[in-house]
């Protein structure tokens, strides 16, 4: 049987999700031996044209170049997997979407009036293409990714977490950092799969795995943090880091109440 | 007659960039290091964010330099609010940055740079002939990641290193395990120096470089408060704008830096070249043996300088852990402090060179404005200078030969292009 052809692509981002793949030092050589890697810009000079069985894509679409590349990847791939918070929710570069325009940002950071680059407002790849699967996180978890890859090799679906971080926090018997220390923990509205790493270190969950499916309790979280004494601006900044524009959708206008 | 030599996309580098050489009538007319990684506007995103969440955002500027960004960010906040951390925190931060150097340099030297010299497209193909070296390199990289994880909470974008200290200190077991790993991987760091010393340094890129690096104090290292320049000048970190003088260039989302009107270089070569007298033990010996391969005028010797730093960081991490274990660690709470309207600057040596974070806060402790200058942004103009030298020296040679030389040169800087694209607030 031929080895499946694998592509690892990155658009605009920090490169952290493909770095997490390289960080699987104990499994890396075995892992790559199961695939024919046809494109991995950060790791190899080898590039092969033609169809791909599985493509991992990390990063946001932030330039016309990103968009063209993404469409090409979709056209040649059987399965596309959105890798990490950038690709799924837009992450930090989409944090101010809905608040400021691209023009304002260019003026603010580069001091230019015109978009003489080919910049676009940063958006997750899922705004432009359909993907078969997603692996969340900023960055992705190594274990989860390894399980996802193994599942795919066996023709199965990758793991999926439909419950919030609080569930794993309780299972680990960590003290609740909201009730114990009054920290602005986002665990109640954020996708699990990290074993509640931050509460385990007595820190608040900052939401790097993105909003949990449905995220019906976003407005309850918002009100709870208001009651704890955090300001509206502060709460919105915290919610926006990993859920960008989605924050307003999930809040359903509660901010204006 | 006009002609263009074009590398669409550099491979085996972090992020997305290319090089264009424009030739006219047999002469090099223009050279561009194009950065087409999209802009991410971090300085814009963090406006109005309360200080305690700033490091959690800015450490995400880059994955492979995440600890450097964390420490630059935390340090700038602590400088703004005049906060002094405990000696234990200082020691743990020193260990963290050595962990990042080990992880990042192991990846760059073995996986990204060495395939060029051994004639392979990547480390995976290199493994077919050099399995033992690749396996040991992965072990070395893992050791760096173990240090990073013990201190920051995970390999990439940690959370445990905070303003005022560490949320949780590493366990004795973690430190003992790391110590065993450090003993095991020490020979691999020496192998890195030996392998790179075995190749003749190319001469096609030779040209004078102005070098800059942090003054690490008494011992070789990556943290400090002032910046050394190869012309003998020393600047306090708060004067960084005099060193970086950034300008916007149209072909790049990264702004370019000039010092006294000239490009300059930051990274392992500047650190080793400016501070070689502070190297100790095996690193000092290996430097002495190979000092003709560590040349100020040859940016490609950045590779072997990284290898020498690998030796240093593994030794230093071992010493730090041993002293921590013998003196005993104490769980300390984060240092408390008041916020007020203030500005703070901090410089850190990231694996690929000097990194500056500069924040201005309002009286509530929220960000008013910021400025972040990354090493690759500072190196961009120097990479263009070298690309021009290469194009001139290899004029008339086949395009493929010129392209390969350009790639080897650019890769030697270990560029981190993602980092470089969200620069200074004007």
CATH superfamily of chain B: Cytochrome-c3 Hydrogenase, chain B
How can the largest sheet of chain B be summarized? 4 strands, mixed
The residue fraction in helices of chain B comes out at: 40-55%
- What is the CATH domain class of chain B? Mainly Alpha
- Strand composition percent of chain A: 5-15%
Note the total helix count of chain A: 12
Could you describe the 3D structure shown?
The complex is a heterodimer of chains A (257) and B (426). Chain A folds into two domains: 5-153, NADH:ubiquinone oxidoreductase-like, 20kDa subunit (Rossmann fold); 165-256, no CATH class. Helices cover 38% and strands 14% of the residues of chain A. Chain A contains twelve helices and seven strands. The N and C termini of chain A lie far apart (61 Å). The mean pLDDT of chain A is 91. Chain B is an alpha+beta fold and 426 residues long. Chain B has a single domain, classed as Cytochrome-c3 Hydrogenase, chain B. In chain B, strands 8-7-6-11 form a four-stranded mixed beta sheet. In chain B, strands 1-2-3 form a three-stranded antiparallel beta sheet, covered by helices on one side. Chain B has a three-stranded antiparallel beta sheet with strand order 12-13-14. The two termini of chain B are 40 Å apart. The model of chain B is unreliable at 422-426 (pLDDT under 50).
């Amino acid at each position: 049987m031929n080895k499946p052809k694998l592509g690892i692509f990155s658009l605009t981002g920090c490169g952290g999700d493909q770095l997490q793949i390289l960080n699987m030092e104990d499994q890396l050589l075995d892992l790559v031996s199961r695939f024919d890697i046809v494109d991995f810009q950060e790791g190899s000079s080898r590039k092969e044209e033609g169809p791909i069985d599985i493509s991992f894509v990390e990063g946001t679409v932030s330039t016309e170049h990103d968009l063209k590349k993404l469409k090409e990847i979709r056209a040649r791939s059987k399965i596309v997997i959105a890798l990490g918070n950038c690709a799924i929710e837009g992450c930090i570069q989409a944090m101010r979407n809905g608040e400021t325009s691209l023009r304002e940002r260019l003026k603010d950071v580069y001091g230019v009036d015109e978009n003489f680059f080919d910049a676009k407002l940063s958006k997750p790849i899922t705004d432009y293409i359909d993907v078969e699967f997603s692996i969340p996180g900023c960055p992705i978890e190594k274990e989860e990714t390894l399980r996802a890859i193994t599942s795919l090799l066996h023709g199965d679906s990758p793991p999926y977490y439909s419950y919030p971080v609080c569930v794993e926090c309780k299972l680990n018997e960590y003290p609740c950092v909201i009730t114990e220390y009054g920290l602005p923990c986002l665990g109640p509205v954020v996708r699990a799969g990290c074993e509640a790493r931050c509460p385990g270190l007595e820190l608040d969950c900052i939401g790097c795995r993105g909003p949990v499916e449905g995220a019906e309790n976003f407005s309850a979280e918002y009100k709870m943090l208001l009651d704890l004494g955090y300001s509206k601006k502060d709460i919105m900044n915290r919610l926006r880091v990993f859920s960008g524009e989605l924050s307003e959708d999930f809040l359903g206008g509660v901010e204006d109440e | 007659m006009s002609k263009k030599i074009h590398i669409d996309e550099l491979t085996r580098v972090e992020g997305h960039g290319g090089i264009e050489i424009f030739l006219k009538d047999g002469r090099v007319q223009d050279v561009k290091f194009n950065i087409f990684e999209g802009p991410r506007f971090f300085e814009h995103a963090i406006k109005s964010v309360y200080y305690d969440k700033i490091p959690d955002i800015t450490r995400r500027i880059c994955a492979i330099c995440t600890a450097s960004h964390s420490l630059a960010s935390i340090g700038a906040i602590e400088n703004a609010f005049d906060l002094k951390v405990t000696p234990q925190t200082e020691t743990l931060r020193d260990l963290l940055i050595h962990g990042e150097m080990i992880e990042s340099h192991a990846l760059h030297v073995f996986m990204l740079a060495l395939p060029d010299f051994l004639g392979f497209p990547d480390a995976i193909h290199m493994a077919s002939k050099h399995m033992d070296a690749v396996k040991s390199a992965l072990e070395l990289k893992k050791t760096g990641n173990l240090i990073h994880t013990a201190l920051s909470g995970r390999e990439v974008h940690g959370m445990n290193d905070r303003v005022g200290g560490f949320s949780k200190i590493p366990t004795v077991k973690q430190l003992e395990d790391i110590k065993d790993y450090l003993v095991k991987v020490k020979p691999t760091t020496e192998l890195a120096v030996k392998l790179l010393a075995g190749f003749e340094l190319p001469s096609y890129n030779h040209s004078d470089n102005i070098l800059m690096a942090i003054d690490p104090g008494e011992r070789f290292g990556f943290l400090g408060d002032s910046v050394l320049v190869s012309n003998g000048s020393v600047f306090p970190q708060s004067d960084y704008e005099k060193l970086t003088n950034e300008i916007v260039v149209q072909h790049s989302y990264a702004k370019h830096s000039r010092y006294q009107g000239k490009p300059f270089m930051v990274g392992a070569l500047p650190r080793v070249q400016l501070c070689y007298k502070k190297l100790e033990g095996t690193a000092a010996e290996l430097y002495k043996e190979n000092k003709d391969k560590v040349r100020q005028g040859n940016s490609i010797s950045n590779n072997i300088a990284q290898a020498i730093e690998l030796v240093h960081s593994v030794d230093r991490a071992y010493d730090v852990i041993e002293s921590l274990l013998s003196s005993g660690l104490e769980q300390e709470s984060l240092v408390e402090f008041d916020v007020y309207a203030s500005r703070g600057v901090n410089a850190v040596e990231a694996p690929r060179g000097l990194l500056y974070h500069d924040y201005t806060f309002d009286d509530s402790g929220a960000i008013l404005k910021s400025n972040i200058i990354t090493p690759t942004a500072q190196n961009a103009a120097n990479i263009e200078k070298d690309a021009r030298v290469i194009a001139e020296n290899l004029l008339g040679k086949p395009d493929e030969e010129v392209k390969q030389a350009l790639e080897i040169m650019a890769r030697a800087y270990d560029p981190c292009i993602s980092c470089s694209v969200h620069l200074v607030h004007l």
